[in-house]
Design brief:
Blueprint lengths: L1 E7 L5 H14 L12 E6 L15 H13 L3 E4 L9 H11 L1 H8 L2 E2 L5 E5 L8 E5 H4 L3 E5 L1 E5 L3 E3 L1 H4 L8 H8 L3 H15 L3 E11 L7 E11 L2 H12 L7 H8 L10 E5 L2 H4 L19 H7 L5 E5 L9 H5 L5 E4 L2 E4 L9 H5 L5 E5 L1 H6 L9
Helix pairs in contact: 1-2, 2-4, 8-10
């Protein structure tokens, strides 16, 4: 059985977060079980887009800072880095670190911010679906990767956590190619599992102090959960996050696939939960995302294939809020977006509903809209059990 810890942490005050992270690490065998003194470690937060910490889009800097402090005290060299959605350039990374508060973390702790924008292709012969990945050099030139995800809903994967956070190691706009080729939810989910098993993070600490409900991972609403979730097993972290937020495994492609592949920690019954009791950590009314045809699968797949575009969740630009910045245009993997007269426009016939534009929009002006048939059938209107 995998060990995983749920540690109470009710706010982001630095001292409280530090004590909670230290306790979480102790439950995973201590920092020495994940990193040796003298090693170089990449801390991989979720830096989806330019966002202030209180928006609940990115991993909170105080969580990153607490982990950095523990590692540096242990004698490790710490690098903080990610490849957010958008261009993987030094200029963009500087803006990201400043906006998310990680520049201050680096100054306060002595950690180093990654500005290496080189990438490489890595063989993945054991992958079930993907045999070669494009990966940022910063992840390839360290001794260990520590995974610091954020608990959030996700438009296509239903929940984004420790497994999907590894996707941030795929460089910038290269992510769009994976979205374009892997439109099917199970294929995309299998790619994420292949990537996770290649990266092999030695420790995973999820920021679930304040998560995101509704239309995550960027346009939902912050929701206080009040815990950190930690394990050396990323799948165990996501299994606990799913249970806490009331989402069934068959709604989450990566966990559904992990169960099918007989990975024990995909089922919380096979996890030794330490710290706070799982039932006490549950959020009974965590609001789901609008829904996605990519994540439905199962018995609904034939119906979805039959009715095609009538049974989908579409993207729609809220024109009054769009400032024509072009981030969605640059991110779209199939070039379905144009900028006309200072406003974004989406060609629905070309759109593959990867929701990259929804995730990346800094103004939250790309909405997810159910089709009429989805409204009438009620598909995707998942209610949480009390």
């Amino acid at each position: 059985m995998s060990d995983a810890a749920i540690i109470e942490c009710n706010d982001y005050s630095p001292d409280r977060v530090y004590e909670a992270v230290k306790k979480a690490v102790s439950f995973t065998g201590g920092i020495g079980a994940s990193v040796k003194s003298g090693q170089t470690v990449l801390l991989k937060p979720n830096l989806l887009r330019l966002s202030a910490p209180d928006e609940a889009v990115v991993t909170h800097p105080n969580v990153v800072g607490a982990v950095a402090r523990i590692l540096i005290d242990h004698g490790a060299k710490v690098i903080i880095g990610d490849s957010p959605g958008g261009p993987f350039t030094r200029f963009f990374l500087e803006k990201m670190y400043s906006r998310t508060g990680l520049d201050k973390v680096a100054r306060d702790t002595g950690a180093v911010l990654n500005f290496n924008t080189k990438t490489d292709q890595v063989s993945n012969i054991n992958g079930k679906l993907i045999k070669r990945f494009d990966i940022i050099k910063a992840a390839l030139e360290v001794d260990a990767v520590i995974n610091l995800p954020k608990l959030k809903n996700h438009g296509s994967m239903r929940l984004t956590g420790a497994i999907k956070n590894s996707f941030g190691l795929v460089p910038g706009l290269t992510k769009s190619g994976y979205h374009a080729k892997l439109v099917n939810a199970d294929n995309f989910g299998q790619m994420l599992l292949d990537l996770l098993f290649m990266v092999k993070p030695t420790l995973n600490i999820m920021d679930a102090v304040v998560g995101m409900e509704g239309n995550g991972p960027a346009a939902g609403n912050p929701r206080h959960i009040g815990v950190l979730i930690a394990s050396r097993d990323a799948i165990a972290v996501d299994s606990i996050a799913a249970r806490i937020t009331g989402v069934k495994n068959d709604e989450i492609p990566v966990l559904r696939l992990a169960e099918q592949q007989n990975i024990p920690s995909a089922n919380v019954k096979n996890i030794n939960v330490l710290g706070k009791a799982l039932d006490e950590a549950m959020v009974r009314d965590f609001k789901p995302t609008t829904g996605s045809d990519r994540g439905m699968g199962g018995i609904l797949a034939p119906l979805i294939n039959f009715v095609g575009g009538s049974m989908v969740v579409n993207t729609e630009v809220v024109q009054s809020g769009c400032d024509g910045c072009g981030d969605c245009y640059r991110m779209c993997p199939v070039e379905a977006i144009t900028i006309n007269h200072g406003k974004a426009s989406i060609d629905k016939k070309m759109c593959i509903r990867c929701y990259c534009c929804h995730e990346i929009c800094p103004q939250n002006t790309i909405a997810l809209k159910k089709s009429l048939l989805l409204h009438l059938t009620g598909v995707g209107n998942r209610k949480q059990k009390k």
